[in-house]
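Case 349 in the screening queue. Each case pairs one protein sequence with one candidate compound; here the compound is dinuclear copper ion. For every case the pipeline is the same: read the inputs, emit a complex structure as tokens, and attach any notable structural observations.

Predict complex for case 349.
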Amino acid sequence: MAGNGRQGAPEPAPRRGATRLSRVVAPALGLLLCACAAHPQSTLAPRGPVAQMELGLMGYSLLIMAGVFLAVVIPLGIVLVRCRDRGVGRPLPKQVEGHHGLEILWTAIPVLLLVFLAVPTVHDSFLLAAPAPASALQITVIGHQWWWEFDYPGLGIVTADEMHMPTGQRVELTLKSADVIHSFWVPRLGGKEETIPGQPNHMWLQANTAGTYPGQCAEFCGLSHSLMRFFVVAQSPAAFRAWAHGLQHPVVTPQSALAKQGLAVFNQFGCGRCHTIDGTPAQGKVGPNLTGLGNRAVVVAGALQNNARDLRQWIHDPGAIIPGTVMPPFSTLSAAQMKALTTYLEGLK
Ligand code: CUA
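Case 349 output:
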């Protein structure tokens, strides 16, 4: 706003008030308008019963707190105005210190309010802690520095970065960690749950609407904590079955001469010591399982898009994308080797 050519001009008196007002109004308006943007990670736009229940509790608590706020601030305002010092000679108002009736009243009111808060909170906590039915889809979520592994023990498939689930049904999650404490959080589907080494946690989620819901590690877990993202893909049960079937019957044979060369590069550089590709000798467990990699929308915990250019960037210097990652740089690969390798990886469907 500075440098609008009006500097130095005499400022009329009424404008001073307007400037002061604009200093308050402009930031407030800015904050308000921020709320108009899309918020894919908003707890205020739930898409499943867990997030819905939690939002209900938040709204209910906020209502009670707003009531308490008004019950304190309104009488305070009245007292400040009506009982202000109007000069000498006026007697002090009647003092109520030690009044038994009032002491009991303002002890009882907070106790009652806490009971009103506790009953629905405990009720919903039990509902959320109840395990999903035994027939529910089981997913083991494993936090790693800095990516997410999703195992489907009943289906015999393992994936990373994207957790697929069918809509309209409860999914039972077992949360584990491979290293330090992480926190699994998909704001539009439910609250946070920590993944703790040696201490599996449980939670259930349900998505009522198909869609892709971004998630985020919500516990500081080291250098690249803020980059530890993932996506939950909620899809119709039929689409979910098709996705799982694809991973159970993956395309692992290179489909072109270039992809065949890529497999040779993969073997030459020992990629299979850290990564698994189901149905091949590559059975490493350090990094993400690469089965069906070509079908994922994102790679590297959502830091990169799934295309040859981004994959090349990652393989060349992973530490530039995820500082502190255990994946070593493969900067010695020639351009031809890199092209072959990314073609092979993108062909894993
Ligand atoms: Cu994992 Cu923060």
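Case 349 observations:
- Residues 133 and 223 are 38 Å apart (CA to CA).
- DSSP finds eight helices and twelve strands in the chain.
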